[in-house]
Fold:
Amino acid sequence: MKRVIQILMLSLIMVIGLRGNVYAVHLNASSWTSTTTYDAQATINTPFYPITYFPSWSCNYTMITDGTPNQRYAQVGWSKDDDLYGRTLNGTYYFFQYNNSMATPYNIFSTVGPAVGSNHTYITMLDGSTYYGTVDGSTIGSHNAGFTGNYAQYSGEVSDEGSARFAGSSTNKLFMFNIYSAYMNNGTKIWTLSPPLDFVNDSKQGFLYEGSWVVGSPNASFSYYDKRN
Amino acid sequence: MKKFIKMSIVVVVAFSLLGATGLIKSKNSNADTTTNYIVGAVPKTVQNLSALGTLGYQLNVPNKPALISPDTAVKNAKLTYPGLNGNTAYTVEYQVLTLSGFSLFSQEALDKNPVLNTKKKIEHLPVYIITYENMLVPIHSSIGTNPPADTSVPQGYAKCEYNIVVDASSGVTLLAFQYR
Structure:
């Protein structure tokens, strides 16, 4: 039953995506939890900084979301953009973003980002009534939880497929591993290493390639790359 | 009389020592936890203190001058975030900031401020907050999210302000945040 609901929800998400309502492009691996999601964790290897032409961005993150229809989320990861016009930060930085259907989501950026080729562990977590985002155990941001979600997601996203690329090439893919989700059962947090993952690739131009993935204990992982790189 | 002179010397020496200690403390305590802000004073600011409060930000009025100038803070912010170069529309405020839930500091930020290095958190820290209006802030989305109504803004962005926080003791940029 759980699996059926999961498939139905993801099908709905994909249908909405195919209708062209998306304004960003994702490679998304999603893990559904039967009760409130408490943690979304992944270690992400950043192979290189992707090309982004102003005004566009490319990023990777872990996220807790309530999915359709409200699309509320808390997420932590890294983001890159470029700028020649004094309108954005311009660079590659860790970030935490919280969006509870607000006119303006809350963002916080650090002054540093992942070194090329390095691995970093990103955890979006719900602790009590607050969402936190951590990078290698250091907290970058937090926000009172205005929603609860049932999805832990591990994603790459670009704002505009025509201007920004995903990280990863055929010989140097973006790699996510050490994937966990957690939910609460009678007051006990249940961690799941290598949860079942459902993939969505909503690239309309076919630039994004899901390189490979391994699902199941002990090493759920996946990689992808942008064919243009 | 001798006793009076002796007592006077003791008192003078004691006050000198206290004064010296005070001087030493004031020079190095620009980021200490108890004496660097005016208790109960409400900051003059362009920020929305109520909204910031719900996000874990608390501003206080400094009771000591900053160790670096506002110009240096702006220059350093632009070095950290080069996208700010060429943008001259900003305001700068000197505040004492407490921010729960941030510990992702650069090594430079820790190395150049011993108090920050010890605490590993922003607690009554003298800072400059540099605010840039009409900036483009990345807004991510879940799959299937509707596009924003404002088509004058590039895809995947919102027109917001950026607030850059610079350590007013070391001059090192600490973070950027956006909430409105």
Q: What stands out?
A: The longest strand of chain A covers residues 174-185. Residues 6-22 of chain A have pLDDT under 50 and may be disordered. Residues 2-21 of chain A form the longest helix (20 residues).
